[in-house]
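Workshop exercise sheet. Pairs work together: one partner reads the sequence aloud, the other fills in the structure field after running the prediction. Swap roles for the next sheet.
Pair: D.N. / O.F.
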Amino acid sequence: MFLDSEKYPLYQYDYGAAYIWQRLSLLGLLGIRTFYLQCSDTLSFQELYDCVVFNTDQYWKSRDSDENIQIKKSRRFRQYRQQFERNHPYLSILNPFANRLISFRVWLDSWLQMDHIDKKLFQQHNRMRLFPNSPIKTRNRAVLFILFTNHFNYSLLVTCIKLIFVIEAISTFHNVILLIQCALVLACSIIAPYLTIHGQMTEMNEKLIKLLEKIKYDNHYQITAIELKQLRFYLNEHTQLSRFVLYTDKITWSEALYYYALISIPINVTLMCELIVEDIIPETKFLFITAGIIHAVTGVFPFLLLADMSSDFHSINDYLPAMQLQLKQSKHLRLKIKYDDLYERLIHGKKIAHTFGTLGNLTFRGLFEAFFGYIAAFFLTLKVYMNEQQIEHNR
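Structure field:
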């Protein structure tokens, strides 16, 4: 792998690539062990399959005809054009510029507003298996995220193939591309279930809080049969989604995130110390900075999303006691006891969140504590590097 750097100057960057590869290969092995060496009938695998593969297949099965899609776009274009002329009468004079802006907005909203599919077919018939009550907007966002990731990965591979024939430092460029692809796998594996669960929990919480706010400020309010049905539905869905989070964390994610934290923190700390202390050439420094940024973003951003998902499950704590006071009739007793049990679990029970193994819960507080652990590890490692530099300087 290491060629003569004097004869092939650009191959000197392969040393930097080897440094990154030797340390990040552990993360690759961890990913293979987590996602590829497990049975396909486990809940964690089925959850990923349902969010990534099955939902996307149902999306394409619900695709509308090209004529209907064009009709929807034309109708949307006329609507946006009229609105643009009312709001910006002077800019509307510039027809080519205005039409380009409106066309881009129509194209974007046609995907966001689901003009490409039959909404009724997608929502009522082509449902997900594990998340049959997931809102249609949430499912659409998950599909768009998967499509965007696939197109980005394809563009990355095409660019890599073209540049390999131009750039002489093949190993360096290849390892950077491989690092980005590993980051995409990690991001998709976490973000796709997050979008599904977060979207469903957000919509249910909004409806429940709206109902509970109405109950809270009216002591004489009588809960109707429809509202009781909504309360039972929320309780069942909350319990089901909590089971998905806790059980998949127990069988898959807890151990994987634990090892990821134990591997990632030393890698990132070492990269930072190498940049600060070691005297390395600018090109290798740029390689280290790129690897450090990608590694930090792909580690922190998905974890923030998982912490936000945990917050969704506990966001109704303040509203449940007021609702308990309104369940006065004898026919409400069973539901009242169930919500009392839910409130007890949310306040004093195990956090509905992913975990770093035995290190703690993956919540915002847990991430804050992990950040202080990272700072402590960084300064301890930096002190070791500085001592070694001082010893070498004295020699």
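Discussion prompt: The radius of gyration is 26 Å. What would you look at next?
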